[in-house]
Amino acid sequence: MSRETAEVAIGIAEARHPRETAWGRWRLEWGARTYIMGIINMTDDSFSGDGLGFDAAPAVAQARRFVDEGADLL
Q: Does position 30 have pLDDT exceeding 60, yes or no?
């Protein structure tokens, strides 16, 4: 593969998979580090059995715990 072809391929890959995702004041720089996601499971038919139902208070409490424990995304 020529250098020019490789550069084009890299450009296409970067266009498809941006290195940064931003919304508002938050930014995620992909590849810079490992991000931690906390899943807040609301449905009572959860495969893991930890569904919180439709009461917002437990979901908010779980979200706060995740953030306190270092979650980057919820």
A: yes
